[in-house]
Amino acid sequence: MVSTETIYNTLTHHFGYDRFREGQEAIITHFLAGKDGLVIMPTGGGKSMCYQLPALLQKGTTLVVSPLIALMKDQVDALKTHGIAAAFFNSSQTEMEQAQILEAVKAHELKLLYVAPESLAWLESVMQPDYISAIAIDEAHCISAWGHDFRPSYQQLGYLKQRLPQVPILALTATADKATRQDILDQLGIGQAKQFVSSFDRPNLFLEVRPADKRLQQITTFIRKQPDSSGIIYCLSRKTTETLADKLVGQGFDAAAYHAGLEFAERAQVQEDFVHDRTKIVCATIAFGMGIDKSNVRWVIHYNMPKNIEGYYQEIGRAGRDGLPSEALLFHSYADVIQLRKFMEGATNEEVQEAKLDRMKQFSEATSCRRKILLTYFGEAREEDCGHCDVCLDPPNFFDATVLAQKALSVVVRTGEKEAMGTVIDVLRGARNANVLDKGYDKVRSYGVGKDVSWRDWQHYLIMMINQGAMEVAYNEHGALKCTEFSKRILFKGDPIQITRPQEGVERKRLALAKNSVPELDAVGAGLFERLKELRGQLATAEGVPAYVVFSDASLKDMALRKPGNDAAFLEVSGVGQHKLTRFGADFLQLIRDFAEAEGVSLHLGVPKTTKTKKARKSNKRPTHLMSYDLFQAGKSVDEVAENRGFVKGTIVQHIIKAQAEGLPLDRDRLVAKETLDRLREANSELGNPMTLKAYYDYFEQQISYDDIRLGLLVLETE
């Protein structure tokens, strides 16, 4: 057993510290005792010390698995400056260099060896307890499908415990929720290992979220208030990093772009210039900052919304690592949400990614203490508001929502804590859709107890209840809402909960118009209403359901009144929830857009379009469905056309169908995959050419989308 005196002497000798940071000593002692563990410690909290110091007190080599090949050299160089024998092993080295490293391991000359998971197979000759004394797995969240940066290459790491059962494993990450933590341990074969979870609170960071309106102007104003400080601006795309950096340079700022598309030497130079304060501002994609121990980053700006809270938390953690006051500014736009959802399509863990994106969106739209939300997300309770975020500085008006919470929690309990938010709201409001009726939820005692509250208001209230810990989201159970200890106190002891009402902006006032009744329509609105009824009838026939199941007359009148032009505005329509938006939104939105263009009336947009987009559409008089048709015939796929035009895929499908109906030639071979066509033929053979899309959808066990079914049937019609 290594003595405490020896541990502290090693700390002082090699690292120059006379004390540990919070939590480090307990972890080091545990690891030195040969026990497995999981370390959850915020960026800048000192995770590396937890395995680097123990490595110096063991005979063999500590194997460090890391996904960041580009940063291994920097990490090894830093260790060498502390007089520690370390090396990295990856594909950039020659066979001779790799052989020398393996010989050094066998000779017990290396204390730490960094390796990417892809290179582990080349270490077979040293994968013995005589040579490997411990294993550290950095960025351990990458092994979990529930994690925010899942990497398939990490899935092979489970074999390490099988190969070296007596060698302790320490998994480390800055961000992981409860589901991810347990999944990490299970995947690594150390399910019962002790978890060391440090506080996620970074009190020196001021948290702020703003609408993504005139971002460049807001950013330049923000930077000019602290001209000599270093900062990072995270962007969603490579192109945005370059464009933004160029614009900042043009306004006199010292800025550079960083992304994976740059040559390695150029990326390395940008990183080095930033670390050494030769460049003050870096506009970067998310990879930048990982492994960089730059303590004086004073601010982090998210030009685009991150895809999950874990990533957001990790990235803002790169500011204020020295403990001094720093700022985290996030720009939130619905367009970012749409773009991120597109990126997630087809991912093996798509459902989990979408659930986490929804949680990030909820954080961005919150009207309660943001720090409290972050800590609650990671399972850390906080009683009081932080007083150091935008919401705390300009607090909204709260009201006693205990009764509302009791109604919501009653539904959560009576639906078995297995339903996601949308279904819970449907039950609260007494909805009579198939999802509710098929499961018998119309028979539970709480059915309809919240019918006097709109769908969107319930969504707002539930999000706030989640943010305050009154319930939690199980992402590994399809986003099911679960009760917490606070839930039980609310339900059974009447503990109070204070939340805010939705903010009364322009959009909320418009929503209030249709709260109790829909105003009478003018002549134009009446014409649109009739067109919407026709479309509803067509979709109802295709789906094999009554027309009112698609939308009620009240919903159609509200559409005709509002004339929503995008998903955000469509969700404001009375009777529209997320499920119906997904199912029918594309069809109705396209009809409304076409009608508005023909009649010369304006659309209501939930999120303002950029000036560039407005001008582009205004200047092009060609019918919108033909614009999509032209792009498709020019060689773009249906998905690429949708991305190019900023529409959902379903809208483009309707454009293609309309062009086909007008007799225009169509390159049908590119519409849908051959496999989909074969399966449609098989379905026709077995089902006898069913009349409804839903029959196909159910036959395919929901594995083929409605959009692809429509495209496939269009092709088969011409065979």
TrEMBL record:
One record GO biological process: DNA recombination
Domain HRDC: 522-602
CDD domains: DEXHc_RecQ, SF2_C_RecQ
Molecular function in Gene Ontology: 3'-5' DNA helicase activity; ATP binding; DNA binding; four-way junction helicase activity; hydrolase activity; metal ion binding
EC number of this enzyme: 5.6.2.4
Coiled-coil regions listed in the entry: none
Domain Helicase ATP-binding: 28-194
Catalysis performed (reactions): Couples ATP hydrolysis with the unwinding of duplex DNA by translocating in the 3'-5' direction
Helicase C-terminal domain ranges (all copies): 215-368
A Pfam cross-reference name: HTH_40
Domain of life per record: Bacteria
Keyword annotations of the record: ATP-binding, DNA damage, DNA recombination, DNA repair, DNA-binding, Helicase, Hydrolase, Isomerase, Metal-binding, Nucleotide-binding, Zinc
Family stated for the protein in its record: Belongs to the helicase family. RecQ subfamily.
Name of this protein: DNA helicase RecQ
Organism, scientific name: Sediminicola luteus
